[in-house]
Amino acid sequence: xKAANAIIRRMEKDLSSEGDMIxxxxxxxxxxxxxxxxxxxxxxWQSRRGFTTTNRRAELRRLEQRLAAxxxxxxxxxxxxxxxxxxxxxxxxxxxxxxxxxLIFPGxxxxxxxRVLKANGFRWSPSQGAWQRHLxxxxxxxxxRVLKTISGAxxx
Length: 156
What we know:
elongated, 2 domains, five-stranded antiparallel β-sheet, alpha+beta
């Protein structure tokens, strides 16, 4: 993209046509004609030609870290723990296949328990038959907080 931007800037100074610019970018960078045209043809809201390169390295690093986290999650696999609470035996399932932490109750939880679940970011999933949220450290912490709250609230 940097090489394409240099070609575009140089050819704009020479007042070259868009077709010539596209051909030069394709010849020197290996981009397809469609990809080159996206950087060269101006949309009505654009003020200058070229490809945006801002924040590309940071985005690439973020995506690599995300892939590594997903690989660790897959490697860890699905784990299930059953916890006895005053609301009954609650199954805590870390479902790596869908990247969700799930709380499975023996029946429909009472209204205060549902309020606690919703306040901690859990949503009911009819297809899974569980209260769930995204599987990450915040989700694990929220699950512990919910279990602590419903055990303490119903026992008191």
